[in-house]
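Q: Hi! First time asking for a complex rather than a single chain. Here are the components, and I think there are two in total. Is that enough to go on?
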Amino acid sequence: MSMVDQAKSKRLLAVHGWSGMILGLLLYLVVLTGAIAVLAHEIGSWSTGSAGSHDLDPNAATAVSQLASEVPEEWKDEVRLYTNMEGNTIANFHTHQENPASGQIEDYGGRFVISKDTGEVISRTEGYNDVLYPTERGSALEGFITELHINLHLPNPWGLYATGILGLVLMAAAISGLILHKHLFRDMFVSPRFSSMLLNKRDRHILAGTWSLPFAFILAFTGAFFSFIISIGFPIILLTGFGGDIERATEMLTPKSPLVEDASPAPIQSLDQIYADLEARTGSAPTNANIVNLGRADSMIVLYAAASDGAVLGANHAYSVADGSYLGEQPLIGSGENNAAGIAFGLMGALHFGNFAGLLSKSVWVALGLAMCYVNITGMRMWTQRRLEDRLWQRFDRVTTIFTYGVPLTMATSAMGFFATYNFAGDTMTGTVIGFFTGTVLAFALGLRRIDELTAIRSLTAVLVASMLVLPIMRIATGGPGWINAITSGSGMIVTMDLLLLITAGAFAHREFGPIRLPLRAAVPIAEPAE
Amino acid sequence: MTDSATQSQHAGPRFPTWLRWVLAGPVTLIIAIATMASSSTIGATEVPSFNAIAFAAISFPAFWGAMFFYVLLEERPWRAVFVSLTVIAANAAVLYSAFT
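A: Yes, that's all I need. Here is the structure of the assembled complex.
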C-alpha cells in the first residue's frame, strides 16, 4: 500500500516527474561525473602513467630543511607539503597577506617542486594563491571531471548553487520515489515484463530505483550539504555566529596547538623520521602535512594519515618539529574537546566520496552511481515516450539520447585531449577542454541528424565504443607505460583502468550490436526525426 | 478523491496551485537557510558553540527536506502558509535576540 492518499500521490508524482524532467539532464551529468570522480585518484594515476602514490616522500625531507634556511623568515609562518601526480613533492612556504589584485587575505610565498628522483628543487615560483596552488599538469583530467561534478565549471558561487539545487532535487526525487512505492519489497525483486516496451522500462526503472534509493538519498544529502556549506553555509554562519569576524571564525575552526608559544629559534627535526614514526603508529604513511612556525621552538607539524585497520576516517597527527616528539591526534576541524561535529563532517565526506574502505567501497559507489544514472535516464524516457505524439517531446527524447551517450563520450574525448598534450609539453587543461568540446560537438552532430531513434542510438554507441577502445592505445602511443611496464613498476591500477575501458566498450557493443537482441527493441516506437 | 476536491474540502477558499509550488520551492529554501542560521546561534554565549555551528550546517538539507515535504503533503494548504510564516518569524526572533 502507498503511504499517502491519491491526491498526495498525484502531487508527489508531479514533483518526481517534473523535477526529473526539468533538471534530469543536468542531474545525469552531475551523477555520472560524480560516479567517475569517485575514481579521480585512479584516473590521475592512469592518465599520467604514475604509480599513483600520494604518500609524502621521505627523500624530500632534506630539501625542505635546506629551503627553511633560504627562504624569507615570514614565509616560514606556514608550510604545506604534498605530493603531485608525478610523485614530486610540493612545498609551499608562505605567510598570509592582502593580495592587492583581489583585495582578499591570501597565502603569499614560494612554491618549490622537489624531484622524486634526485631529492632536489627543480622549480621555484613566488606569488599569491594562483601561483602557490595552480592546476597541476598531471591533474588536469581528473581536475576537469571533478570540477564538472562540483560546479559544472560555472563561476562560483553560481556553480555551487546549481549543484546544490540539483542535490536537493535528487533528494526530493528519492524521497518521493520511496513514498510512491506501493510494494517496496516486491519492487526490489520485480521481474521486468516483456509485454510492452513502456512496461519493461517502468519495471527496470523501479527495480534499479528501489535498490539505489538509500544510496541516492545519501548522495543527495551529502552533495547538497557540500555545495551549500561553501556557497551559503559558511558565509551565513560567519555573519550570525561571528558577526563577520573571519579571524575569530578561523580561530575556532582551526585545531589548537598543544605547544606553548615560544618564538626562540630551534633546530628542525628530520621530517623523514617523523613520517616513519607516524607510519609505525598508524599503519598509514602521511599523505600531506602542514607546518606552522618553522624554525621556532613552538613549531608543529600536522600530518594526515588515511584510515587503516578497519577505521572509517583518517586522522591528523601532530608532532613537535623542534624535537620530533608525538603530540597526539588532532581533530580534522574544530577544537579537540567534544568534537562530535568534527566527526560528523568527516563522515559526510566519507559517505559522499565512498573512500572509507579503499577500492572496495569506491567500486560499490561507482556501481551505485551508474545505477542512479540508469534510473535517471529510464525515468526521463518513460516520461517522454508517453508523450511522443507531441513534436516537442520527440525532440526532448532525442536530446536525452544525445546526453545518455554524449556525456560518457565527452569524458573519453577529454582524456584523448589530455593524452595529446601531456607528454608533449602542451597545456593539458587546454587539451582536456578541447577534447571535451570535440566530444560535445560530435555527440550533437550525430544525434541531431534526420534519422530514426534506433539509428541515432547505434551511431552514438559506435563512436562511444570506438573512443573507449582507442583510449588505452592512445595512452601507450603517447608515451604512457605499457601493461608489462606498469605491472612491474607497481602501477597495476593503470592496467585495471585500461581493462575497465575495454570491458565497458565490449558491453556497450554487445548490447547494441551483439547477436542477442532484446525482443522489445524491435517494438520501440520510432520517433519522428528531430528537425 | 481528486486533488482539487481534497483542497476544496479542507482549504475553504480555493488555494492557487502556483502558491503551493512557491511555498515548496523558494520559501522552503529561505526557511532552511534561516533555520540553519538561527540554530547555529544555539548555546552561544560570547563564543559560538562549534558543535551547534557544525550541526546546523550539516542539518541544512534535512531542514529543507522536512519543510518541502510538509508543504507538499499538507492537506490544508493555508495551514502550510501559516506554519511557514511562523517558522520564518521564529527564526527571525532567534536571530534578533542573538544579535541584541
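A: Chain B touches chain A at residues 1-3, 5-7, 24, 29, 33, 36-38, 40-41, 44, 47-48, 50-51, 53-58, 60-62, 64-65, 68-69, 72-73, 75, 95, 98 (CB under 8 Å). Let me know if you'd like any chain examined more closely.
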